[in-house]
Amino acid sequence: MKAYVVEKYKKKGALRRADVPDPQVQNPDVLVRVHATAVNVLDSKVRDGEFKIFLPYRPPFVLGHDVAGTITKVGPGVSRFKVGDEIYARPRDHRVGTFAEFIAIHEDDVALKPRSLNMEEASSVPLVALTAWQALVDIAKVKPGQKVFIQAGSGGVGTIAIQLAKHLGATVATTTSAKNAALVKSLGADVVIDYTSQDFEKVLSGYDVVLNSQDPKTLAKSLNVLKPGGHLVSISGPPDPAFAEALGLNPLLKLVVRLLSRSVRKKAKSRGLHYSFLFMHADGWQLEQIAGLIDGGALRPVVDKIFPFTQTPEALAYVETGRARGKVAIKVH
What we know:
The longest helix is centred in the last third of the chain and has 20 residues, at 251-270. This protein is of the alpha/beta class and 333 residues long. 32% of the residues lie in helices and 26% in strands.
């Protein structure tokens, strides 16, 4: 089958179109004919080698973390799906590779595609929606009446997180540029801060939750907008000891992770705040809940551009410019 592979870890390294073996279907797997996939910042970071200490892949490997498609084969242990089902998924770590014509996925990572979405729209959802769900529902446990600050509201995670926070009953603030203010307001943002001319640290105060997706400087400033007992959830680092424990890292790497996040954890603790790092994980059950919210009208994906499969490298390059509104999808079949 055709696929786009990472030949070696390299910053801004080129993806190579290649013929690779068809996936092997294991006992609990479904084989999916990929109709569409989507590009995430995570794809760039994996290719660049940013996570190779914690999440090693052996080059050459197929990149890609989002998929929507049709099941063409099921393993003998599969009970929830059948051939012909239209699904969407974020395959689990070490089994990614959606920039391809086919992929085998553990059935626990899979959910039926939202009926109201086409394949390209559905492919744009899994990674960012799971990230938003795990940050706001699992970790922060957002409740009605709380105030939530979501950074980069017009980005992939931001566009979904704003809608999910509103669905949970929160008042939502976000940052974006002036040209995207109307978009984030249409998604439900109550307070919109133009990051090019305003400092969110001076505008916001008394927030219950911050979803941080930016640089260390922004992370440090985010602590200042939280009220005592507030929760800072970061998807851009630094990783914390709970992350190291969940990955089963060796003692040396656990120490490294502890040192990386020591400063922010210490500052948070001194102010009566909580700090958590989120590296989202695959979860088919959560995708079922998310599909229900989409078909019920509570969530809608924002797709900026759709590229043909032959332009997968160009799609990745476009996401790396940081100018995409919402997600960038790739039509494969």
